[in-house]
């Protein structure tokens, strides 16, 4: 841990060198890879970007022209030895880290904080890999909670990818019984690519454009579909600005910063040739993926005082006529890629039971008629929803148990932390959980 | 980035073990380094010297394409007799060491912890520190000292204890691992109860992590037909060290460094005794399921203890060989977990590691390190045999010649505390109600 901090000065130098070459444009972002998990995952991501994007997308914000004409990933690699690739335009930072280990979690939280301090006007998005709940690192719950508490203060958004969920996608959907990290990283890389590759905003309901003027505030640019339909008809427009648009659409409320990724189609390469794509089915599948990740048998008694729980859940039931066990969202961003994406019906994601009454502008849709790699049609979803609360809650419960037995604390005190550091982190996380449960 | 380990071989047992260890370490690297290049993996245990110059020139790892000139072990050899070290320096491994790396006395420690600790320790203190510093200066980022010794004899236990204290003082940031041979019930050294009790005091206070081994356990593992049982036993002990460090030397999807072992497996600072078990020990086996079942079996333990009857405070499972994936590990951990008693605050207390580079003897092998309360049964045994001797005050005069008799009482009290700490954890039950911080509701 200490040796990583020693290297931090060289990281700062590198970051400064990198930023001095940037113009104040908005089209690109810098990826900061931290620790083993972060480095492995984003290597997959850059490979996926290179494979999935077609020539027209070549200048997506994550790459720059290399000196020899090839494309070079704009990434700062930090795993003891930082390397830097230059960058000419800049919109924000995307940090990649695992929550379990030391470098990713501890240094990751520190770097995020520092980036936000140095560049307060830029967005910092943290992509965190949540460890297997059955344990990769024994102190993972301490590490994850301490990190989350720090990120809550410094990052604009926290994307959480859970290893358990990825492993189950590999097993159940892709037919890989013994998934390795490579397989799982590929799944995340696909979803990330579908969100982050170039796209343009469109209105949620094309035909109702005039009845919902609120949703067409970007109605300036012209968009041309491959069929030659002028995008202006649909009020589509501006390209998605990396990170800043994401943050303003999804993480407008400072108390809600936890994001999760979903992607269809999840099919193996083998069955790709036998698959017929259609928007209706894909969007339905995606919506079901979102809905079924409900709180399930999540025991609310553990966290909510019973009186408050009754009023809370009671009010929910009466207001929405729905069970409380729906994965409620604050905001969703849907990215459709492939022909017909401009006109696909996404009204499923407008269902009112998904959102609390006070949330406005909760669905944003971006499209690109170009297909994503081999997928004729694909849909990516980045949501600010309750589904990340469950793993957080379980980690917190386990951490309380360990903390009560005072186990492993001496390892943290050695580096100057105190009991209160833990208690503050636990408080922040309790806060996050109760906010999300109140959605 | 290379992270170096300096090994310290202390006493007869430590040097015999070290002799085998270096042989096997060389074999392991030879098997996966066909071009004889000095790479990062090699630099953990060895440094590369060009002897065509005077003084000999150090060759760094560089871009990974430096050829091997002369490999030198990052080791310090210490014994109060000349026999074993001389044998080592005459043998085929002699090239690995030079005169700057060993210290021998002439008299021997006579199986007496007090003589070794109070006389030989201070006497050779400066020489030992100087040789350790010489090795440390050749390292880019020294991470760990590994000491090999037995705690029943004189030099290994007494000088070993002294060295641990000195290193703790001089290199507080560098981890101190020990591979300690604990005496068996029928030990050939009659004063071993005294020596081991006094050594345990030093191990508890000054080591970061102790890997206890027991001759009887090793002897039971090897086949009775083997002609050179000590070689085989030393091979097992060496394998343990090679396996433990494989993940920091070679690539793998889930690396585990030595500092992660101390971090994850030591929930309380004094309770750092890790029982170990491996599968397969020496023969080839490739059946994954069997490996996991085997490492938790009583017969595979390198100590005569039964972890299955006691509580696991934490457990590490380190896999070598590229045929195992992370989901295999998860699946098998889940399978084994239901059969084990875990501490209530650490139900998910498994640290897992995956290293691509297989061991020489098997394409797939598993090491299990456990912080288990069963180790206290050995401590109780050691305390009992100590009491039997101490009650009659036999041999005590040999010790009081060099130290105050109160040291025995201090060590004995410390042992009681240690046993009690383990017992408290063994019997601890899940508290009825855990206090949670109560958030203010938002609505």
Automatic annotation (TrEMBL), chain A:
A Pfam family it matches: Tubulin
InterPro entries given in the database record: Delta_tubulin, Tub_FtsZ_C, Tubulin, Tubulin/FtsZ_GTPase_sf, Tubulin_C, Tubulin_CS, Tubulin_FtsZ_GTPase
Any one cellular-component term (Gene Ontology): cilium
Ranges of residues in domain Tubulin/FtsZ GTPase: 2-199
Localization terms from the record: Cell projection, Cilium; Cytoplasm, Cytoskeleton, Microtubule organizing center, Centrosome, Centriole; Nucleus
Key word Plastid present: no
SUPFAM superfamilies per UniProt: Tubulin C-terminal domain-like, Tubulin nucleotide-binding domain-like
Keywords assigned: Cell projection, Cilium biogenesis/degradation, GTP-binding, Microtubule, Nucleotide-binding, Nucleus
Domain of life: Eukaryota
Main location: other
Gene3D superfamilies to which the protein is assigned, alphabetical: Helix hairpin bin, Tubulin/FtsZ, GTPase domain
GO biological process, one term: cell projection organization
GO molecular function: GTP binding; structural constituent of cytoskeleton
PROSITE patterns: TUBULIN
Summary of the function given for this chain in its UniProt record: Acts as a positive regulator of hedgehog signaling and regulates ciliary function.
Family as reported in the entry's similarity comment: Belongs to the tubulin family.
The name this protein goes by in its record: Tubulin delta chain
Species assigned in the record: Physcomitrium patens (Spreading-leaved earth moss)
UniProtKB/TrEMBL annotation, chain B:
CDD domains: epsilon_tubulin (cd02190)
Domain named Tubulin/FtsZ 2-layer sandwich: residues: 254-384
Superkingdom, natural source: Eukaryota
One Pfam family named in its UniProt record: Tubulin
SMART domains: Tubulin, Tubulin_C
GO molecular function: GTP binding; structural constituent of cytoskeleton
Keyword GTP-binding among UniProt keywords: yes
UniProt name for this protein: Tubulin epsilon chain
Keywords: Cytoplasm, GTP-binding, Microtubule, Nucleotide-binding
GO cellular component: cytoplasm; microtubule
Family: Belongs to the tubulin family.
Transmembrane segments: none
GO biological process, one term: microtubule cytoskeleton organization
Tubulin/FtsZ GTPase domain: residues covered: 57-252
């Amino acid at each position: 841990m200490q040796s990583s901090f020693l290297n931090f000065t060289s990281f700062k130098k590198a970051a400064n060198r990198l930023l001095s070459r940037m113009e104040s444009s908005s089209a690109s972002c810098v990826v900061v890879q931290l620790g083993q998990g972060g480095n492995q995952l984003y290597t997959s991501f850059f490979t996926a970007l290179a494979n999935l994007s077609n020539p027209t997308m070549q200048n997506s914000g994550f790459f720059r022209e290399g000196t020899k004409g090839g494309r070079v990933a704009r990434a700062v690699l930090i795993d003891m030895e930082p390397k830097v690739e230059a960058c000419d335009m800049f919109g924000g930072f995307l940090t990649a880290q695992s929550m379990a280990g030391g470098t990713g979690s501890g240094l990751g939280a520190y770097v995020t904080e520092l980036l936000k301090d140095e560049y307060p006007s830029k967005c910092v998005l943290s992509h965190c890999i949540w460890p297997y709940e059955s344990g990769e690192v024994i102190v993972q719950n301490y590490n994850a909670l301490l990190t989350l508490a720090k990120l809550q203060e410094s990052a604009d958004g926290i994307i959480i990818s859970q290893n358990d969920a990825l492993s189950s996608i590999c097993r159940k959907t892709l037919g890989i019984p013994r998934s390795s990290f490579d397989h799982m990283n590929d799944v995340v890389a696909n979803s990330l690519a579908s969100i982050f590759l170039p796209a343009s905003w469109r209105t949620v309901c094309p035909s109702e454009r005039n009845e919902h003027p609120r949703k067409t505030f970007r109605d300036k640019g012209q968009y041309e579909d491959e069929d030659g339909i002028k995008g202006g008809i649909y009020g589509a427009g501006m390209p998605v600005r990396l990170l800043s648009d994401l943050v303003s659409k999804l993480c407008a409320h400072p108390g809600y910063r936890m994001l999760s990724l979903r992607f269809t189609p999840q099919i193996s390469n083998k069955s790709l040739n036998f698959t017929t794509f259609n928007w209706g089915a894909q969007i339905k599948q995606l919506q079901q993926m979102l809905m079924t990740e409900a709180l399930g048998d999540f025991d609310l008694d553990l966290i909510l005082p019973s009186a408050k729980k009754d009023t809370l859940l009671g009010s929910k039931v009466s207001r929405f006529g729905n069970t409380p066990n729906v994965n409620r969202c604050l905001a969703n961003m849907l990215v459709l890629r492939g022909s017909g994406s401009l006109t696909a019906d996404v009204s499923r994601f407008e269902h009112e039971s998904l959102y609390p009454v006070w949330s406005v502008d909760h669905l944003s849709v971006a499209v690109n008629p170009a297909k994503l790699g081999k997928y004729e049609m694909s849909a990516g979803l980045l949501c600010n929803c309750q589904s990340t609360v469950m793993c957080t809650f379980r980690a917190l419960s386990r951490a309380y148990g360990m903390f009560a037995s005072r186990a492993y604390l001496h390892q943290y005190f050695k580096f100057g932390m105190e009991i209160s550091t833990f208690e503050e982190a636990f408080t922040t996380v309790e806060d996050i959980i109760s906010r999300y449960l109140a959605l | 980035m290379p992270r170096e380990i300096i090994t310290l071989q202390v006493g007869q047992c430590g040097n015999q073990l070290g002799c085998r260890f270096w042989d096997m370490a060389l074999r392991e690297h030879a098997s996966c380094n066909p071009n004889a290049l000095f790479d990062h993996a090699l630099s953990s245990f060895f440094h590369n010297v060009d002897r065509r110059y005077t003084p000999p020139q150090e060759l760094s790892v560089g871009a990974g394409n430096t050829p091997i000139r002369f490999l030198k072990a990052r080791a310090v050899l210490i014994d109060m007799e000349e026999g074993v070290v001389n044998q080592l320096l005459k043998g085929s491994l002699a090239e690995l060491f030079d005169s700057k790396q060993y210290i021998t006395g002439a008299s021997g420690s006579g199986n007496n912890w007090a003589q070794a600790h109070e006389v030989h320790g201070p006497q050779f203190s400066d020489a030992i520190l100087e040789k350790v510093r010489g090795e440390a200066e050749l390292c880019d980022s020294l991470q760990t000292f590994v000491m090999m010794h037995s705690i029943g004899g004189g030099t290994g236990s007494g000088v070993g204890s002294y060295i641990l204290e000195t290193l703790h003082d001089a290199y507080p940031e560098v981890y101190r691992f020990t591979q300690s041979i604990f005496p068996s019930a029928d030990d050939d050294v009659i004063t071993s109860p005294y020596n081991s009790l006094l050594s345990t005091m030093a191990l508890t206070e000054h080591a970061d992590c102790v890997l206890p081994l027991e001759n009887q356990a090793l002897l039971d593992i090897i086949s009775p037909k083997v002609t050179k049982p000590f070689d085989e036993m030393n091979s097992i002990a060496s394998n343990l060290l090679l396996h433990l460090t494989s993940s920091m030397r070679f690539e793998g999807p889930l690396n585990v460094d030595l500092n992660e072992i101390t971090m994850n497996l030591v929930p309380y600072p004094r309770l750092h005794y890790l029982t170990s078990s491996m599968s397969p020990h020496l023969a080839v086996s490739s059946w994954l399921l069997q490996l996991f079942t085997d490492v938790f079996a009583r017969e595979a333990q390198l100590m005569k203890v039964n972890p299955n009857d006691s509580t696991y405070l934490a457990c590490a499972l380190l896999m070598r060989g590229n045929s195992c994936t992370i989901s295999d590990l998860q699946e098998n951990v889940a399978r084994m977990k239901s059969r084990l008693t875990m501490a209530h605050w650490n139900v998910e207390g498994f640290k897992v590691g995956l290293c691509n580079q297989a061991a020489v003897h098997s394409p797939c092998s598993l090491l299990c390190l456990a912080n288990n309360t069963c180790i206290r049964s050995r401590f109780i045994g050691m305390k009992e045999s100590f009491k039997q001797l101490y009650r009659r005050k036999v041999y005590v005069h040999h010790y009081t010649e060099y130290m105050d008799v109160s040291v025995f009482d201090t060590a004995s009290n410390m042992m009681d505390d240690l046993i009690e700490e383990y017992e408290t954890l063994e019997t601890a039950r899940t508290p009825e109600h855990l206090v949670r911080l109560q958030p203010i509701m938002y609505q």
